[in-house]
Amino acid sequence: MLALLLATLLACTGAKDDTPTDTDIDSGGMDSGSTDKECDAGTDPTPGSPGCAAAGGICVGSRDQCSGTIAAEHNGECTFDDGDGFCCVPPAANASGDTCAAQGGTCAPIGGCGKVDGWTAESSDCEDVNNICCVPEATCDGQESLACCYYDASTGAPMTQYEPLCDRGTVTCFEGTTLTCVEDCAVR
After folding, report:
1. Which of 29, 75, 83, 136 stands 20 to 30 A from 21 (CA)?
2. Mean per-residue pLDDT over the chain, rounded
3. Do residues 127 and 99 touch, judged by C-beta distance below 8 A?
4. Would you list the DSSP string of 57-104?
């Protein structure tokens, strides 16, 4: 069973050696010279706030949530159940730092990140239970094709599928999960 799991991971990652790693698919696809199986591209949904998304923005509930600049021409797309919102274009990512702004994002409601089809990033400062660190979709590749998979240790069967995180252009997973193609983590 373990050999089958390793063979599946190697086929998905495009790795050329015997050691499975997730670095080959962290960029959202395969090595450009790989002839091995690539992850299915998936269908990129049209964001609910397409103008804000195209501007590299994130929908936030208030101006003070914005770590960057407000793209006022797209504010009308960022309406929440409890009122109007704002289209916030976060600053460019820093080379280091653990705040959301350093990641190139802004703390936003989960729904606001979803309105622009954004990625979640880890940060030290998005403390409100309803907010996440959201970075624009263009920050990382492979959003519709990659998953973080938790495999059963005894059987190797996929048990749970999670959305990957985006860390300054690199797709990552949290500890205990493996970055893989969505189709290779079919949870039953």
Report:
1. 136
2. 82
3. no
4. -EEESSGGG-SSEE-GGGGGG-EETTEE-EEEEPPPPPSS-SSTTTTT
pLDDT in tens, 42-65: 788 889 999 999 999 999 999 999
What mean pLDDT do residues 167-182 have? 95
Maximal CA-CA distance, the chain: 55
Q: What is the pLDDT of residues 103-137, one digit of tens each?
A: 999 999 999 999 999 999 999 999 888 899 999 99
C-alpha to C-alpha distance for 162 and 174, rounded to whole angstroms: 9
Contact (CB, 8 A) for 70 and 94: no
Question: What's the gap between Cα 13 and its chain centre?
Answer: 18
Output the pTM of the full model. Answer: 0.77
C-alpha span between 49 and 83 (Å, rounded): 15
Q: Using DSSP, state whether 15 is helix, strand or coil.
A: coil
Distance from C-alpha of 118 to C-alpha of 103, rounded to nearest angstrom = 13
Residue 167: strand pairing partners: 170
Nearest to 166 by CA among 128, 122, 124, 131: 122
Which residue in 92, 150, 102, 154 sits closest to 123, CA to CA? 102
Place of tokens 């820093």: 94
Direct distance between the N- and C-terminal alpha carbons of the chain, in angstroms, rounded to an integer: 18
- Tokens encoding 167: 């860390």
